[in-house]
Amino acid sequence: GVGSQGDGTLQILFDNKKDMQALDMIIKHKFGYKTFSVEHNCNNLQAVIPIAGFGTRLKPITECLDKASLPIYYKGKLYPVLYLILKDMVEAGVQNVDIIIRVEQIDFVETIDKMLKNEGYNLKLTTSVQTERKGLGGAVLSSTSIMNKQFVVISLGDYIYSSNTADNCTKQLINYWNKYRQPLLTIKEIELEQVMHYGIVSGKWIDNEVLAVTSIVEKPSIEYAQQYLGVETNESIKYYCIFGQYILNNEILDLVDKKDGSSAEIGLTESISEYVISHNVLAIKINGTSFDVGLANEYYKTFCEYK
Questions:
Q1: Residue 31 carries which DSSP code?
Q2: Helix or strand or coil: residue 267?
Q3: Do 299 and 290 form a contact (C-beta atoms < 8 A)?
């Protein structure tokens, strides 16, 4: 837009740095005008990554090695799981990340922070200590950084992601959030025989990648999923589970908070399911693969296939 103050200035808004730099060169060298650029992180999202779990499904290795520090082969080097999750966050434009930890994990997180900065990745990394083992919902509530945040990115600490596009999986999710500005889940297709291991999402497609959620059920039986949770896709019935990342609003987090105070585990799924009854939640089919490193056989698959 052209300035209205009579000062002869022109303002141009870009959605990527590469195009901004290209036009900047043309204006300076072809026309000889001065330019000024300001970069703004438009998403301004706070992220939470819980890593306080003990990795019981990976014993005995997790008796001596933290699950978030498990090595992953990537571009000729071995990187810890947490490093790869955070690298994707930074590349997606997320600058504020709170890691939910056990107190003995502080040194590990500080080491990861140094690794990232040594490789040019800068972010504001904080830690919150989870004192009680109350499931994923309890872990998220342990964060000291989500108070008064309208939206929060939640990324599971035992999943890493490989994208099939130029944008990594976290960036794909944020792109959809910038478009819809409402709570989002990420989903992937699975076989019916696998539904009892995951949170299963059902709904109706509003386009090829976006599902309007009507229900979400944690680890249903095959019979229940077959009867109630199938999604009509290309004239066939398919089943979708959580891909591993969410963008949730403070209204959903308030529902999670109301379940605190009991001795039972606090699940995110139950609160999202309650919210869906009267509010819109979208599920995004990410163009990529999520790798679960929290199971021995899946970790082996991740080490072989992740890239």
A1: I
A2: coil
A3: no
